[in-house]
């Protein structure tokens, strides 16, 4: 009987462990849209501002400590992934159907460049510029309020066109996308 009660106690304790774990600081997230019948997906981890307003994108801010600064992984944890099941044009960059990694050059806080990189499966801080498919300018704007959770969105605007947007803290950067 003593062994039975001990086993029941161990099982009870083990079943409460997942409930005690904290949610991840930068939970996984996905942005998906179907444009012109084709699917475009961005998979990323979403960090939080957590009281660091004005201390993220500055030259001595949070991101400046990444080894490839001013190139930023545009998310947290593993690298931000783009998958498209059609050839697309992002800004002025032709992107063939396939899987890619997204980075953003934030050297100029008022004018970001989206980087589409051919190397996939990377941890977020691994960046190899020699594998870049290319870069394209993003349209910058200031959101009406702080964007607490980093968010990528893909919006279908009809006619095979859409917008890809990255927002976090006091920055919003977008680029037009066209599906072929």
Report a brief summary of the structure.
With 180 residues, the chain is mostly beta strands. It contains one helix and 13 strands; from the N terminus they run αβββββββββββββ.
In terms of topology, how is this protein built?
Blueprint (H helix, E strand, L loop, with lengths): L1 H19 L7 E8 L2 E8 L25 E2 L7 E5 L3 E3 L2 E3 L2 E11 L2 E7 L14 E6 L1 E3 L5 E12 L2 E9 L1 E9 L1
Antiparallel strand pairs: 1-2, 2-4, 3-7, 4-7, 5-6, 5-13, 7-8, 8-9, 10-13, 11-12, 12-13
From the alpha carbons, calculate the radius of gyration and give it in angstroms.
20 Å
Based on DSSP secondary structure assignment, what is the total number of beta strands? Answer: 13
Instruction: Give the helix level as a range of percent.
Output: 10-25%
Written as H for each helix and E for each strand, in order along the chain, the element string is: HEEEEEEEEEEEEE
What is the averaged pLDDT score?
89
**Can you tell me the overall shape?**
globular
First-residue to last-residue Cα separation: 70 Å
The helix/strand class is mainly beta
Query: How many domain units?
Result: 1
Q: What's the number of helices?
A: 1
Q: What's the quaternary structure here?
A: single chain
Strand count, sense and closure of the main sheet? Answer: 7 strands, antiparallel
Query: Which runs of at least 5 residues are low in confidence (pLDDT < 50)?
Result: none
| Percentage of β-strand residues | over 45%
């Amino acid at each position: 009987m003593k062994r039975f009660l001990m086993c029941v106690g161990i099982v009870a304790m083990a079943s409460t462990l997942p409930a005690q774990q904290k949610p991840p600081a930068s939970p996984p997230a996905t942005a998906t849209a179907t444009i012109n019948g084709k699917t475009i997906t961005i998979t990323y981890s979403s960090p939080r501002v957590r009281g660091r307003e004005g201390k993220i994108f500055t030259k001595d801010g949070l991101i400046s400590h990444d080894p490839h600064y001013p190139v930023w992984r545009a998310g947290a944890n593993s690298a931000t992934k783009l998958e498209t099941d059609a050839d697309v044009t992002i800004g002025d960059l032709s992107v063939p159907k396939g899987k890619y990694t997204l980075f953003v050059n934030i050297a100029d806080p008022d004018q970001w460049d989206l980087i589409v990189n051919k190397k996939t499966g990377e941890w977020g801080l691994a960046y190899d510029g020699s594998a870049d498919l290319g870069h394209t300018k993003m349209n910058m704007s200031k959101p009406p309020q702080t964007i607490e959770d980093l968010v990528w969105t893909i919006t279908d605007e009809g006619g095979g066109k859409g917008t890809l947007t990255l927002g976090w803290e006091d920055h919003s950067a977008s680029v037009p996308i066209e599906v072929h």
